[in-house]
Amino acid sequence: MKNSLFYISVAILPLFPALGIVGLLGVMIASMRSHLSQIISNRINWSWGILAIWLVINSYLAYQPKEAWLGLANFVPFMGLFVSISPLLNSVNQLRRLAWCLVIPSFPIVVLGLGQLWLNWSSFPIVKTILGWELIPQGVPPGRMSSVFIYANFLALYLAIALILSLGLWLDSWQKKTQLNSQLLLLTTIIIAESIGLVLTSSRNAWGIAFVGFMAFFLYLGWNWLIYSVIGAGITVFWASFAPKIGQEWIRTIVPEFIWGRLSDQMYPDRPVETLRITQWQFCWDKIQEKPMMGWGLRNFTPLYQETTNFWFGHPHHLFLMLGMEIGIMASIFLCLIVGGIMANAVSCIFLQKYQPSPIPPYQEGDRLIIFTYIMAFSSCVLFNLLDVTIFDLRVNTISWILLAGLNGISQQKKFFQS
Q1: Nearest to residue 313, comparing CAs of 265, 365, 358, 274?
Q2: Mean pLDDT computed over 350-355
Q3: Domain ranges of the chain
Q4: How would you label 91-120 residue by residue, b for 16+ Cβ within 10 Å and e otherwise?
Q5: CA torsion through residues 320, 324, 329, 331, sign
Q6: Fewer Cβ close by (within 10 Å): the C or N end of the chain?
Q7: Residue 33: left if φ>0, alpha if ψ -120 to 50, beta else—which one?
């Protein structure tokens, strides 16, 4: 029962966030009750508990404790989600079903985004009251698709995750040969829609992640001709955006202007210095050196930045610099070690058991592909947060923690083919 509720909750989360969160809360309670001993005995969960205690202490000692207490909501509940759903994701088949639940909503979300940009669609006020999102004509910021998300960058990360999962499911279905053509056709349609949506978000970060994602799949599968094709396309776009004038004008007739103009930042040439990433990063680095151990407290970047620059800004566009400033270097390193350990265990499921003798039978090729897909999907979250911060969006943050829980569940389990 809780497994079905989990998949339903994940599937409706992007479009019906309130219902999705309520469903996930029910899953957390049910899983805690039925897997309590397993949860308590897991050492990774002890690590999350230690980190949660540190964050509470850090909030008490913060520069502005009220902001820090509010900031706990971006971390502690999701640690609880992680530890409770990891036992529910202990087979590759479960990861496949979860991937479908994350992918399917992307199609209507892109359709709504296209209507937003091209037909000036807007939502009724009651939609925001009931569903928690608002469809704003021309997007947020104007000219960039944001669809049901509050900002284009949050949609961009969701679509980047969905695109990687869709590609993994497509390749998995194609390799099996026994799948119906309708499934491949459906996934192809979804991939095309996600790609169009990703382009229209105008997120340079997401474009780069999509490029890296496709390259990673082709390298994993050994499809050299596609690797060369993607590299060639990347060089062409790079030349149009950044290369010397030699041949650039001709190449710019091939590459759309909104791509090379966005990448080269020529579309927004006169931005205030306070909005530049390098300014925010330097500010964080300076504050880290002032309080390297304890930090200034969660959500304290904004008030400190405003006091210094007289300019309000929500976050510094770099998750790890922000965490170093807000919770201190030691806690940030501890968090990275936890996540890094989970990722290392997941990678070992693909490679170590493939090449080293083990009493446990190795995964089949399709199973390894799905695990690789999840590794790439979560890696996209990490890479995106090197140039932005997405923990403040409930849906994207929830999905990121679910992906990490899936990697943890599959690497912790012992019965590889349990469904």
Answers
A1: 274
A2: 61
A3: 2-222+273-412
A4: bbebbbbbbbbbbebbbebbebbbebbeee
A5: negative
A6: N
A7: alpha
Characterize 292-321 residue by residue with b for buried, 16 or more Cβ atoms within 10 angstroms of its Cβ, and e for exposed: eebbbbbbbbebbbeeeeeeebebbbbbbb
Contacts of 62 (CB under 8 A, 6+ apart): 68, 296, 297, 298, 300
Give the other-Cβ count within 10 Å of 283's Cβ.
Answer: 20
* Token pair recorded at residue 280: 């925010």
Query: pLDDT, tens digit, for every residue of 188-226?
Result: 999 999 999 999 999 989 999 999 999 999 898 888 877
Euclidean distance between CA atoms 271 and 269, whole angstroms: 6
* Contact criterion met (CB below 8 Å) for 75 and 18: no
Q: Can you read off the two tokens belonging to residue 324?
A: 């170093």
Look at the alpha carbons of 272, 273, 274, 278 in this order and tell me if their dihedral is positive or negative. Answer: positive
> What is the token pair recorded at 413?
């389990």
For residue 348, the number of C-alpha atoms closer than 13 Å in the C-beta half-sphere is 15
The predicted pLDDT at position 94 comes to 94
